[in-house]
Amino acid sequence: MRCRNKVGVIVAVLWLAGCAATPAQRQTAGATDTAHAVGPQFDQALGLMHAQHYSQAIPLLEPLNKARPDSQLVAVNLAIAQSRSDHDAQAEPLLHRLLAQYPADAVAWNELGMLQRRAGQFAAAQHSYEQALAANAAYADAELNLAILYDLYLQQPAQALPHYRRYQTLATTPDKRVSLWIAELSKMAISSAKDSQQP
User: Fold this and answer.
1) pLDDT digits (tens, 9 = 90+) for 48-89
2) What is the pLDDT of residues 113-142, one digit of tens each?
3) Could you give the CA distance from residue 152 to residue 4 in angstroms, rounded to a whole number?
4) Which one of 14, 79, 85, 194 has the fewest CB atoms closer than 10 angstroms to its CB?
5) Cα distance between residue 27 and residue 116, in whole Å
């Protein structure tokens, strides 16, 4: 019952969790360039992404990605724009190429995890979120996405609970909805412990 009531809210949270890191500028570990260095076309694409006009950002980012194949920042933002525009078939191979070159790119790992979760590849998504956190232990979005994966998709609420708690410590402002989920999962854990102690 709890999961059924929470699904609608979770979908929105997953979207927000993915959007919170876009455009990718700060969490990209060891970025080879900066937004300023890429140029005004990239700035325009970032502006469109901030406004959630992802499909409009793609035509600006694609030629930049071809012209600057070494640009980690351009590639990860193009993958994000593609993913948010339901072009998963283009985003996933781009993310794999990017991570082969920059394996410590936390944003790319998180984005790949979301694509894998949508495709029902839950074990792969778990690995990707864990890799994102290994690259950046303070990456709140990956922490939340991992918690949601454990909670709703893997049906492992006990494993979800510490990740929800960690997310709340990392988030700029604690999320009231996540606080409710923590309280609910904590009650379930206490109830389960009591049941297991009964003869």
Assistant:
1) 999 999 999 999 999 999 999 889 999 999 999 999 999 999
2) 999 999 999 999 999 999 999 999 999 999
3) 9
4) 194
5) 20
